[in-house]
Amino acid sequence: MVGYDGSDAAARALDFAADLAGYGSTLAVVTVRTNGSDGSAAIAAREQLQQRLVQAGYHETTGEPAQELVQKAHELEADLLVIGRSSSGRPLVESVSSRVIRQADCDVLVVR
């Protein structure tokens, strides 16, 4: 499973997850809508994977990104959750990736 929000870090994570999908696994792309999002992240993820000829299942949820990604990984019984990490430059704000690492009950791969 890969978390995708349309950022450059998420695009790198999606490419990495697509590379892994070639080894007999299935890929699930999860986007989390927040108050300011318009749903374009799911469209961008689909286009990125179509260019690479990679099939995936797409899931969209609403809420707090880390919590929703962890919950969806649990629901999908994901073996691996791939997530991008961007450097926000704000050391006092805990990142989504660090919360996912702490909360997920499956392996987490953070792509920089």
Brief characterization of the structure:
The protein is of the alpha/beta class and 112 residues long. The chain is built from 4 helices and 5 strands.
Structure description:
It contains 4 helices and 5 strands; from the N terminus they run E-H-E-H-E-H-E-H-E. The mean pLDDT is 91. The longest helix has 14 residues, at 8-21. By secondary structure, the protein is α/β, with parallel strands linked by helices. Helix 3 (65-75) runs parallel beside helix 4 (96-103). The protein has one domain (2-111): 3-Layer(aba) Sandwich (Rossmann fold), CATH 3.40.50.620. It is globular. The chain is 40% helix and 21% strand. The strands form 2 sheets. It has a 3-stranded parallel β-sheet, with helices on both faces. It has a two-stranded parallel ribbon with strand order 4-5.
Give the number of helices: 4
CATH architecture: 3-Layer(aba) Sandwich
How many structural domains are formed by the residues? 1
The CATH class:
Alpha Beta
Distance between the termini: 17 Å
| CATH topology annotation | Rossmann fold
- Mean pLDDT metric: 91
The secondary-structure class comes to: alpha/beta
> In percent terms, what proportion of residues is strand?
15-25%
Strand order of the largest sheet: 1-2-3
Over the alpha carbons, how many angstroms does the gyration radius reach? 13 Å
| Uncertain regions spanning at least 5 consecutive residues | none
Q: Categorize the overall geometry.
A: globular
Topology as a string of helices (H) and strands (E): EHEHEHEHE
Total number of strands: 5
Report the CATH superfamily. Answer: HUPs
Give the biggest sheet: 3 strands, parallel
Helix content: 40-55%
